[in-house]
Amino acid sequence: MATITNSGEDIISNSLDVTQLDIADDPSNSFEDSFEIPRTVDDILNGGFTRIGLQFPDELLHYSVRVFKSLERHLGSDKKLYILADTTYNACCVDEVAAQHVDADVVVHYGHACLEPTARLPVIYVFGKRTIDVDSCVDALSTSLRQKTARETIISTDVAYAWKAQTIADRLSQAVEDNMKVILHGLPPTVAYPAANSGAPAGVKPGEELLQDHEADGSPLGTDSTQEKPTCSDQKQSCGDTCTSCDCTVQQPLSLAQRAVSSEPKKITADESTIIIYIGPPSLKLTNIVLTNRPASIIAFDPTVNSTFEATGTENRLLQRRYAQVNKAKDCDVFGLAVGTLSTASYLPLVKALRAKLQKASKKVYTVAVGKLNPAKLGNFAEIQCWCVIACAENSIVNSKEFHVPVITPFELEMALDTDRIWTGEYVLDFSQLLDPSSKYSLEAHSEGGNDQDEPIFSASTGKFIKHRKFNKDNEMDVPIAEGVDALTLRTTENALQVMNNSAAGAYLQTERSWKGLEVREGQDEPSLLESGRAGVARGYTLPDTLAASESQSKSN
């Protein structure tokens, strides 16, 4: 009882376990170089932004004041800077909600980022330059690769180590066998505009993919690294205004408009003959790479301990848990869509598509935006039997055992609703593949199984017979006539009989809730007479004559 009636002071004095990152303590980099202050200033000035939101994760918040003052010193007083902390959802996503509170026209996102395309605001990414021992990395990876037989190697990095990715790729290509091709996966962008935004600089098609995979020497994949650069006569737009002859091969540096791309890098595609190298500590990104590239062999290098480890094989147990969650979801009739992002460009179309899919399958669906997910929040919606999380790819998979009902991804929901589909182990975390009608993973590409209502259904998780409740498009339960005799009946003023079908919440209240409200005590208490009460406003109520007389009499006594 004490946990309910305490004063609540413990939540104020409770200390959070936050590990502070020391990305600015590398002696080889200055503070401004670690946080890319000069480049950030150039991007802000070139973009013409005036109100800038600086979004920091908890682990970098102790640097926020120094970064703020440094940017303010370079930009001047005509630019308004705002520090955004305590993100609405996940720190890897751009917090457009907090940015709109200060009317920002751009967000500078610091730290780790999931790189999901934003819906409204442009973003300047500053990933930080985490320390990495290039020599140890190349030696460890080359030793591991000599034990493999593969025709190509794809290098992907945590965004904090992307600044050394090209150097590592060059060194690694020299250390491996000649018949092995080393490919550097598309590097993360530094500036990104919304996927559907008319405010992008001229020459940029919003959502256009300008990132390319590169050979180890930096040349785009599929091109000859030794060929000459295009000349003026071949490609006039490749030359700057300073050209003086038609055979000039000098190109201007990429402008802000040329670097402004859709913020989602190209998906890694690999097969059995491919080795994927991931540079970074164990993370959600590594988990996603392992799940979505099962045929490939995956080697990870952890710069924090300077060692490699095999990531392949770790996905089997995770996939087993996910498959068990899908089987539990097949038994559910009431679903909740937990919106875990408000900035990802495609979250609204996905919510709409999932609601339509669930309603077509005669399921009850609620849509809830609860911020950062935790069991306590979702536990308030006890009537919901299964949750589907709509979040960025790095936060879609919830493996915590503390949730009392299954928590699945949109792809897993699609598999649960399509009872005729056999899961082959493929895994999809990309929203665009679920929304693309031409994709085999499209939400519109599969049926919801048979419609034989007399066919017995047995749970794949428990083996017991289950009977699904059917809901119509208005989220009301379809009750057969024989079962409707216990439904609530009302008579209107015209004496017309109405039958109120049970809702999901009402049915849960009647069958599952142990406490259903205040006790009625019908026939046990003597009825009281209705009397006129106080009237007026709170600062001065007016009493009826009878009530005023009784109060004055009680005071005199």
Automatic annotation (TrEMBL):
Chain spans, region Disordered: 213-234, 521-557
InterPro entries named among the record's database cross-references: DPH1/DPH2 (IPR016435), DPH1/DPH2_1 (IPR042263), DPH1/DPH2_3 (IPR042265)
MF-aspect GO terms: 2-(3-amino-3-carboxypropyl)histidine synthase activity; iron-sulfur cluster binding; metal ion binding
Cofactor(s) recorded in Swiss-Prot or TrEMBL: [4Fe-4S] cluster
Polar residues: bias regions: 222-234
Family assignment from sequence similarity: Belongs to the DPH1/DPH2 family. DPH2 subfamily.
Description of how the protein assembles with itself and partners: Component of the 2-(3-amino-3-carboxypropyl)histidine synthase complex composed of DPH1, DPH2, DPH3 and a NADH-dependent reductase, predominantly CBR1.
Protein name (record): 2-(3-amino-3-carboxypropyl)histidine synthase subunit 2
Taxonomic source organism: Wallemia mellicola (strain ATCC MYA-4683 / CBS 633.66)
